[in-house]
Amino acid sequence: IMFVKSNIAKASAEFEAESGMKPLRGSLMRALSQRWKELPEMAKLPYLEEAEALNLKDGILPLVRKQMRLPSRHRKRQPSGWDIFVRRQRGLQPLGGPVVMQILARKWRELPEAERSSYKEEASQAEI
User: Which helix (DSSP H) or strand (DSSP E) does residue 120 occupy?
Assistant: First the structure.
């Protein structure tokens, strides 16, 4: 919320300068959401600190922290054989979302154990 409040006027002016029209609220919020996602984690910290100062802890802040995983709390885990399999196969599927994951899960279960173990071996050697 702090990020949106700080940047909505600027984003609106940029949109209006580019298109010559006032932006719709939904498209403006989508643009700001995308900017937030692209913002480096360390650049997000001032907005989170400002939110904490305004005592938004009980409302929005836990959700934000849960979604963005601050650097100090984020721990990368060793990928599994399944993770390696999914990364390779995901680009080959024409569909998206849960349908792809269902297809991949079925393929993974149907793989011979030798193939599965090759993915698991590769995962154990992967760098975190």
Answer: helix 113-125
